């Protein structure tokens, strides 16, 4: 499938067929997330795959009336591990060893100083926002791979954080970023309206 075709095929799906999603498809979705880029390679994404009917219903009850979360055959709970931020220097070392900075024009010493300064300047809320931003990249990788496999998905952020964490026994270091119901689509909604490029492009200089 051409990439432009894939972008058009990915839609928010809220009605799914009851057919189970094959395990190899689920693995493929998670592999797509694993390959996503992240700032200084911190890779903060963590996932819980919810498949059983009982847990899907309990998870759906943690949302604000979104019944399709329980009806989807699989929901991937997409999380950020805030402890990943503490491994920044290790991840940076891995990048250097992999040759990521070769011919980049980056002065490695100054780049490390900048990264450490930025890390120190992030308070609790800023750290959560930074980790969530990186997880969002991985989630969209999943959504695109799902469309490529003939699956539908829908970002869900209307849930009660504390209830989801309690249900899934997630630690204090884990922040739930989004729920992603996944399954074979039982609808073909029209393409959602998008702003024209003329309203998005601020300027060319």
From TrEMBL:
One of the record's GO molecular function terms: oxidoreductase activity
Gene3D superfamilies in the cross-refs: NADH Oxidase
Nitroreductase domain residues: 8-183
Keyword field contains Oxidoreductase: yes
Coiled-coil residue spans: none
Cofactor annotation: FMN
Entry keyword set: Flavoprotein, FMN, Oxidoreductase
Key word Transit peptide present: no
Family: Belongs to the nitroreductase family.
Protein name: Oxidoreductase
């Amino acid at each position: 499938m051409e990439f432009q075709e894939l972008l058009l095929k990915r839609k928010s799906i809220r009605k799914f067929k009851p057919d189970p999603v094959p395990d190899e498809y689920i693995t493929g979705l998670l592999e797509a997330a694993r390959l996503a880029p992240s700032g200084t390679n911190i890779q903060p994404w963590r996932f819980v795959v919810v498949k059983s009917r009982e847990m899907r219903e309990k998870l759906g009850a943690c949302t604000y009336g979104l019944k399709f979360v329980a009806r989807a055959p699989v929901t991937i709970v997409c999380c950020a591990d805030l402890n990943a931020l503490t491994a920044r220097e290790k991840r940076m070392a891995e990048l250097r060893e992999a040759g990521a900075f070769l011919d980049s024009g980056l002065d490695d010493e100054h780049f490390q100083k900048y990264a450490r300064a930025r890390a120190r300047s992030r308070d609790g809320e800023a750290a959560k926002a930074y980790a969530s931003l990186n997880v969002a990249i991985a989630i969209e990788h999943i959504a695109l791979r799902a469309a490529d496999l003939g699956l539908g998905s829908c970002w869900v952020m209307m849930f009660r954080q504390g209830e989801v964490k309690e249900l899934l026994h997630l630690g204090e270091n884990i922040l739930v970023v989004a729920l992603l119901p996944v399954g074979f689509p039982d609808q073909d909604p029209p393409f959602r309206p998008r702003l024209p490029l003329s309203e998005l492009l601020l300027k060319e200089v």
